[in-house]
Specification:
By secondary structure, this protein is mainly beta. It has a single domain, classed as 5 Propeller (Tachylectin-2, Chain A), CATH 2.115.10.20. It contains two helices and 23 strands. The protein has a five-stranded antiparallel beta sheet with strand order 1-6-5-3-2, with no helix packed on it.
Amino acid sequence: MKLNYRSFRLLLSSACKLICLLLIIGHIIPLQASNGKIRAHDPVMIKQDSVFYLFTTGVGINVWSGTDMQTWTREEAVFSNPPEWAVSTIPGFSGHIWAPDIFYLDGKYYLFYSVSRFGRNTSSIGLAVNKSLHPHDPGFGWEDRGKVIQSVPGRDLWNAIDPNVIKDDEGGVWMVFGSFWSGIKLFRLNDSLDAPACPQEWYTVAARPREFGTPDYQAGDAAIEAPFIFRSGDYYYLFVSYDHCCRGLNSTYKIMVGRSEEIIGPYLDREGRDMAFGGASLVLEGNDKWPGVGHNSAYTFDGKDYLIFHGYDASDEGRSKLLIRKIIWDNEGWPTVEL
């Protein structure tokens, strides 16, 4: 193929623009980064073979991979296009998906995710399933199974976001979720993990006092969200985040906890107060370097327990970053974490 001078200049100009665009994207969302440099909200993690996979809030759900929990490589997003059911269910939804949770059961990976309008409980939790997390495996490919549950303003005094799924000692699989309104809810999933089990039994496992007279459609001042249940020893530990995320340097996020011998609760704090009625013990709060920290997950990898969460970086204009810290259990069996 022969190119004249004008065509050559147009081709060169297009190539330069593409290179510049890739450089810009690589600067904003690096293809490889380390902890404290990944811009992440609401991180969850799982290990397949020798590879850790990190899922975070983002357009189509952000995915990272790594082998040492230190250096991460960016992978393709879970969704290249917004799920059709979510577009039709949530007015104005354009593909920015919140607070995923990844769960493995019987040879499949279950990825639960949130679609919502900020500050409203116009929300749903969806589910996608994959046989492998390795992108080059023959069985790799996300199958979206659509909506698990939905909250409707004026009908529900709870918010269908921030899912976390856990298996109990008897083999039952439960979902804990919620944000603001009347707090954190727990219910058992059916065998397909794509809907509440029947008959439905719902529990309020954590809540904060809500100002009387707050309209049902408003989030209100009962700032609690991001539940995560972690089994350790004789207890289920329920982590939640108090106060406000997403405000950069003005974020006031902090991580709280209670524990229970039964998955349905009651979850009690260090003082014996029930989390369903405002009890909770502090695990971690912000400092000068990280004004707000929260929306954690917790795991055991290679015999060590880790808290994985995001913090707002004071050295980078309050941008949200991935943080990973070891959990140290005190003499009374409570988790302690150093920021």
